[in-house]
Amino acid sequence: MVAELQMIIGGDTADLLCFSSQTGEWVSKDVPYPLPPRPLSPDGVVSFSGRLWWVDLSWCLLTCDPYADALVLTVVPLPEGKALEYGEAGGLLDKYRCVGVSGGKLRFVDMYRNRNTSGSAQISVWTLADPDSTEWTLEYEATFAEICNDASFKAAGLTRKIPVLALIHPTNLDVIYFFLDEHMVGVDVRARKVVECEVYELVEPPRKHISVWTLADPDSTEWTLEYEATFAEICNDASFKAAGLPRKIPVLALIHPTNPDVLYFFLDEHMVGVDVRARKVVECEVYELVEPPREHVSSRFVHAWQLPRALCSGNTTLPSL
């Protein structure tokens, strides 16, 4: 079966569209919709215990048996204190949270702004022991400092920084996989040990090139492609190598307010200005963010300000965080 849940914000019913491979037809089924008027932002769907589970990593899970005669959508809130405001961490949350099945039970993995009482960044794994319950049980927690300090992490030659969450092992709930630079790393989080580490190759890596478009006429709907460049071309330039930057896809920060050829990126602890048309690094500075933590940076946290000439010392712009 293929199923899609369609809802209208503020409505009291939703449509569950189901396609059966046996009949070869789509069927629309009405189902009471139990959530308040806030958009559900599904980050994925999990099939578990004869049900479908729509996962909003910022809010809750919705579950339903699509084969039932009388359809019921049940709300399963995230563990206490894990729900976010709508739109918070938009586009970033699946890097730091996931829901999946491991060891025959539903698990919730959380890294987003997750710190222990000492302020250290940590990872937490929760279990929904009973699919008919809404209660999560904390299985274990570990700080990334503890993982990085283990001899297995040092032996793997890995960079000491917060990784990107990939998945939870399907049978061993203690093992979580992460993306860290060019590696996929398996960590027994309960034991704080690296148990697997391999260089990975994505079949379709995201954002391997960057494109800049212009809306020349504000009364028009037509965009014009200004230029494109691959990150390989930028990384291969002598200016990139001279800056001593790691060879990986950066996070977009902003476009220069007066020079459309120059884009700024976050790359580890650096803010990097790149003349993308020329494929050259033109600025590179270590930056300090007040908020958010460095692992959560994106273009929505940075703006360009035009400084008064008296403050410029020859520079006319300064990225402001």
Keywords:
single chain; 321 residues; mainly beta; 4 helices
Given the helix and strand composition, which structural class is it?
A: mainly beta
> How far is it from the N-terminal to the C-terminal residue, by CA?
47 Å
User: How many strands appear in the DSSP assignment?
Assistant: 23
Strands side by side in the biggest sheet? 4-5-6-7
For the largest beta-sheet, the strand count, sense and barrel status come to:
4 strands, antiparallel
Helical percent range? under 10%
What is the C-alpha radius of gyration, as a whole number of Å?
A: 23 Å
* Uncertain stretches: none
Shape: globular
Number of helices: 4
Mean pLDDT reading:
87
What proportion strand?
A: 35-45%
The helix/strand order is EEEEEEEEEEEHHEEEEEEHHEEEEEE
How would you describe the overall organization of this protein?
Strand 8 and strand 9 (105-110) form a beta hairpin. A 4-stranded antiparallel sheet has the order 4-5-6-7, with no helix packed on it. Strands 8-9-10-11 form a 4-stranded antiparallel sheet. A 4-stranded antiparallel sheet has the order 12-13-14-15. With 321 residues, it is mainly beta. The protein has helices spanning 144-149, 151-155, 231-236, 238-242; strands spanning 2-7, 13-20, 25-32, 44-48, 51-56, 60-64, 74-77, 97-102, 105-110, 122-128, 137-143, 164-168, 175-180, 183-188, 193-199, 209-214, 224-230, 251-255, 262-267, 270-275, 280-286, 303-306, 317-320.
